[in-house]
Amino acid sequence: MNRFTSFAVALFVALMAVAPLFLNAYHVDVLNSIGLYGLLALSLNLILGEAGLFNMGHAAFYAMGAYTAAILNTRYQIPILWTLPLSALVAGFFALAVARPVVHLRGDYLLIVTIGVSEIVRIALVNDVFGITGGANGIFGISRPELFGFVIRQPQHFYYLIWGFVAFTIFLFLRLKQSRFGRALNYLREDEVAAEGSGVNTDYYKLAVFGLGAAWAGMAGTLFAAKMTIISPESFSFWESVVLFMIVILGGAGNVAGVLLAAFLVIGLPELFREFSSARMLVFGLVMMVMMLVRPQGLLPAKSRQFSFAELSNKGSFR
Amino acid sequence: MINAVPPVLDITPLLALQRLTKRFGGLTAVKDVSFTVEHGAVAGLIGPNGAGKTTVFNLITGQYQSDQGEIFFAGTRLNGLRTHCIITLGIARTFQNIRLFQKLTVLENVLAGCHYRMHSGLVAAMLHLPSQQREEQEAIDRALQELEFVGLRQQASALAKNLAYGDQRRLEIARALATQPRLLVLDEPAGGMNEQETEALIGLIGRIQARGITILLIEHDMRLVMRACEKLVVLEHGGKIAEGPPEQVRCDPKVIEAYLGTEDDM
Ligand SMILES: Nc1ncnc2c1ncn2[C@@H]1O[C@H](COP(=O)(O)OP(=O)(O)OP(=O)(O)O)[C@@H](O)[C@H]1O
Ligand SMILES: [Mg+2]
Q: I need a labelling partner for A52 at 20 to 30 A (CA). Which of A119, B26, B35, B99 fits?
């Protein structure tokens, strides 16, 4: 990181840490939405941005997590935050099962299949397939989350829960990038044949990244259920998947900061300009089009890893 | 030398193709082809355009599955194995139409070759466990050594797509070498290279052989083939028409006929 980036990051963290003290409940709630979408977009970024797999059905995994949490909480009184790992597992394994037969498909075909899967999930929820999802009305009465005996109910409290989780996620995902696993995802995106031809088990990494991204979306679903206390199928429509896809591409596929910035713009701006009602969506659509024309690589395009001098100062050589 | 393979006291050839056939619809791209490559040799696979040379490579490395015939590598049958498994067994390759990870750095490209010998998984990566960090640094060191070996050490931080054409070919070789192969298959390594670069490539091939790595290469540049290879296999229309030492093959009437009328002069 150069000095400017370090400064920008420090400023952003400081601002985010104190923001709820200066903002009203409505604006804090907007930031909470941005945090949730940011979390979802970061998880989709692993699949779409890092590995280059066109997944236009991310909302399905989000829904799996939210419903797992809601059902476990309302039926079995399991504290909502305790369901986090279970939501991750359910969403992750669901993704593995769905992805297993289709990951070998090429980009556009995979995109269509994932749209289909997310629609099947939504319709299954609306039709209350196993009699546990509450149909179109969804599930009510999800209890408030509790952390060390403290009940989280105000937007300000949720703010720290959600953005704390975002920070935790960024911490882990940035480290993932600088590893064998993270590189394997990039090799997949750049050239699958060359990756396989260099000894990378491409099928394994495609499945692994689908599972990981979905598990994270599942946990975002849990946080969403905890925040809303009521969930219904309409929160997990195809449009959600489209918005997430858009955030990742607009921000700069493969760039964590870019994806977060795009989450702020795509989710935050329409909220700020509510007064202009319908015109704002028109402007929003136009901005999207212009962006893709003038900057197709995204706001902050993915950067290649910069190796430090120490890492590169190996002295050994052949003869 | 990190990649030196201990001398193998093995009389069976390192690579053996037995009556290999591959059809694409009505076209038989490879027809009943058999040949062997001995330990430590530099062998060449030549033939006019469309003769089926690249298809043979794709069969060896598992990109295609053969319709008939068998492939053995160091005694292991390769038929039906997936490409990454074959790489793991000790075969590495380069591509005729260079296939680098364009938007990644030169170093990251070579690290791809180190991948399968590393073990850190998802959790170790997310937590940057000490074992993962150590492994990571070891891989970087190994990748840098391979870059040094092919003469690209200075460009380690450059993006692959910004390299000159000849350098891209050498980077592909470095990535292949990073898998620590016993057999290296090169598909037209001198393609697009100027005379100077080709000369350097012949030297590089010699140094790779000196590391104990067996080489099988496809090449149209006859000067390179004649100088670098100890044995040649000639394909035409998918079938093998000649096999033997270069001096013998170049005088073979069938080979001369196959090359007559094409731009390649023997
Ligand atoms: N995937 C494929 N599908 C259909 N036909 C193919 C495929 N791959 C190769 N072929 C055909 O098989 C034949 C042999 O092709 P191949 O690429 O092996 O030739 P080559 O000897 O490598 O030629 P060149 O010197 O031009 O690289 C050609 O006629 C080619 O069109
Ligand atoms: Mg070819």
A: A119
